[in-house]
Every structure is written in C-alpha cells, then in structure tokens.
Amino acid sequence: MGQEYKLNTKSKTLKNFRLVAKTSFGLEQVLAKEIETIGGSNITTGNRAVFYEGDLEIIYKSNYLLRTALRVLKEIELFRFKNVDQFYLKCKGIEWSKYLKIEQNFMINSTVVHSKDFSNSMFASLKAKDAIADYFREKTGKRPNVNTENPEIVINLHINQDSCTISLDSSGESLHKRGYRIKQGEAPLNEVLAAGMIFLSGWDGTTDFIDPMCGSGTLPIEAAMIAQNIPAGKFRKNYTFENWADYNYEIFEKVTAPKPKKKFNKKIYASDISGSNLLNAQTNARRGLVFNKIIFQTCDFKDLSITANNATIMINPPYGERLKHENIDELYAMIGERLKHRFAGNSAWILSASRENFKNIGLKTSKKIELYNGSLECRFNNYKLFSGKLSGS
Ligand SMILES: C[S@@+](CC[C@H](N)C(=O)[O-])C[C@H]1O[C@@H](n2cnc3c(N)ncnc32)[C@H](O)[C@@H]1O
User: What is the pTM of this model?
Assistant: First the structure.
C-alpha cells in the first residue's frame, strides 16, 4: 500500500499521499521549486520526475498551478514480484473498488525498465488489465470497460526490474494542454517547456521580455501568465481526479477560487516574420486573456528595433529543417549579429538542437542548459549582450 500519513489541518484531517510530478528533462529543479511553493513536502528529484508528498489539496493545486508538470500521479500500491503470474496475482489482490467504479471506464499506461519478465510495456498493461477485470468479475460478475480515448480513470504502472509501483494519474490529458492554444503553426513549443525555459532564465516579470520569433506565441503567453500569476490551469476544462471516489469539490473550489492578478507593468514583445503565425499568436493570447499585455508585430528579426535594457530576449528559431528562402546558417549568423549590435545591454536565450547553429551565432555563451524539445536533444544557451567585439562560442 502506498504510504498514507495523517496530517492535521485547521478544520479537517486530510490524508497525505506519495506523489510524483512528471516533467521534461532539465526542468526537474524548477518543478521542485514550484512544488515547494504550493506546499508539497519531502521533495526529491529524479529523472524527468519530482517525488513529494501532499494531501488532496496539494494534488489539486499541483494540477491547477504547476507550470512545469506534465502530469501528477498518486501512488496507491508498491510491490515486488518474482514472475508474471505473481505480478498478475498481486495486481488482482489490490482493492480496486476503492479506486474504480464498475460503471467507470479506465485506461492503463505502463513504463517498463530492466525487467526480465516484461519485454514491453503493452504486455504489462495487458496483464494488469486482466487482473482488474478478473477482480471485478469475481466480485460482481461484471467488469469495467477500457477506454483509451477519453478514460475516466487512468492507472499508471511503473515497473523497474522486479518492483512495480501502481499510481492513479490525477491529470488525464497532459498538463501542457493548458486550453489557451487553439491555433498553432509548425513546431510550437510545448507549454511546459516554454514555462520551464522562462523559469530557468530567471525572468520574473520585473524586466521586459522579447520573443522575436514567436510562432504561435507560447513563450510570450506563458511569460504574461507568469508575470500576472494567472494559474496554469485557468483555461483547462477537466482533470481525472474529478472522477475519483475521494473527489472533494469544496477543496477544488477553494483551490480554483479567483485571485487578484499580480500587477505587471513591464513590456512583453512578440514578433514573427510570418503574418499568419502572428495572427495565431494573437488568437491564442486573446484566449489566454493576456492579449493586452503583449505588443505584437509582424517583422523580420533583421529589421526589429526595440528600445530595451536589461530585458530577457528568448528565441526559439527554426532548426533541424532547411528554410525555404534563407539559409539556416545565415539565419543564425543574422541572429548573433543583431543581438550583438541592436540588443546590447540585454540577456538573450536561444533554444536550438544543433551545435552548428550555435556556432553560427558567434557570441560567447554565458550558460548552457541541456533540454529536450519532444525527443530532440537541445541546448538552451544564454548570451549576456555587452557591447564590444564578437567572439566565437
Ligand atoms: C520554431 S518556430 C517558433 C515556435 C514558437 N516558439 C511557438 O511556440 O509556436 C520559429 C519561428 O521563427 C519564425 N522566423 C523564421 N525566420 C524569422 C526571421 N528572420 N525573423 C522573425 N521570425 C522568423 C518562423 O516564422 C517561426 O514562426
């Protein structure tokens, strides 16, 4: 059984659970900091994951407020097994009726590492699904249905060698789906990665923010939400914890009760060479209620002129593919040259997947951070833009 603790709050006693928030590689530390801010306890970081403890309120806050979590799992069972038959029996021995009603549909997600018994995660999911079906059939003569499209309950299995952790996924659809992005061009950034990049840069809304290749506007929209303390989940319609037997509407209402926005009087600039991309960014910003906080412009970065000092410039240029009208090497050389000559006195951050691209920037790197954009390994490099000569990276 996943450890459960008693925790005294002012009015009631809430159980404390062992939780895992999943994230993208490189964002573990910023996520841990966010979890600390919302009141999680016993926080430790892992690979693409942060482990912590918290009660139902913390689970709801984790889903509604964390900007760098992809999903939040609540551990319900932890066991070791010797072979597949024992795995099945241990799964069947769980009191599933506590977590799943016969009329609710469900789905199982599995990850398997270093297992001699399970060569793939599908096989583990299948065995666990059989165990759950047999548990219910033996008890009631009926079984809950599987639904892989839009499940009401999502069960997560993590098998590492001979140990298995079973959790309930409290989020359902990945939390990067905030609900504001209705229009997107090619290669939009994942919202969780965008928020993580902003946190990693240290930008906190006390200076201007500039994204001169904004595409569908993910970075400036996330920046505007961070600056005004707009909850990450404000536009999201649902979470799977709302289908749990222990769902507490009052606590969720308390967590989502509207709070005053933080005052923000610096500037956020978003521009792009493509007019249609800029329109997408504007539509998304309107949907995210931050349109009036962003200054939009259709403009080639080559011609962009903004008077800024101490601003954070964040660029996610095209990479990996050849540009139609322009050579990618020239594009990166232009970015380096413009940063140096037009944006001295500011701090620039560039996310790109290719070392060659960074060489073409031609500026001295102050910081290099390894991140993943989907499955693509990237560097997120910082350039402090002093005036003076260009020097190689
Ligand atoms: C990888 S996408 C950015 C995606 C964006 N971060 C998002 O989340 O949707 C790169 C963007 O750079 C823009 N771009 C390419 N060359 C440009 C230039 N010279 N000046 C300004 N924008 C440019 C493209 O139109 C495209 O929208």
Answer: 0.93
| Cα(117) to centroid(ligand 1), Å | 46
Distance CA 254, CA 210 (A): 35
Q: Which CATH superfamily is domain 191-234+265-384 in?
A: Vaccinia Virus protein VP39 (3.40.50.150)
Binding site membership of 196 for ligand 1 (Cβ less than 6 Å): no
Question: Ligand 1 centroid vs 81 CA: distance in angstroms?
Answer: 50
The yes/no answer on whether domain 5-169 falls in CATH 3.30.70.1120 is no
Stretch(es) of the chain classified as CATH 3.30.2130.30: 5-169
CA of 318 to the centre of ligand 1 (A): 6
With a 6 Å cutoff on the Cβ, whether 277 touches ligand 1 is: yes
Q: Are 39 and 61 in contact (CB under 8 A)?
A: yes
d(CA 53, CA 43): 7
Where exactly does CATH 3.40.50.150 map onto the chain?
Answer: 191-234+265-384
Verify whether ligand 1 is closer than 6 Å to residue 130 (CB atom): no
SS3 297: strand
218 close to ligand 1 (CB < 6 Angstrom) = yes
> pLDDT, tens digit, for every residue of 309-362?
999 999 999 986 544 546 899 999 999 999 999 999 999 999 999 888 999 999
Q: Tens of pLDDT along 120-153?
A: 999 999 999 999 999 999 999 999 999 999 999 9
* C-alpha–C-alpha distance, residues 281 and 272, integer Å: 9
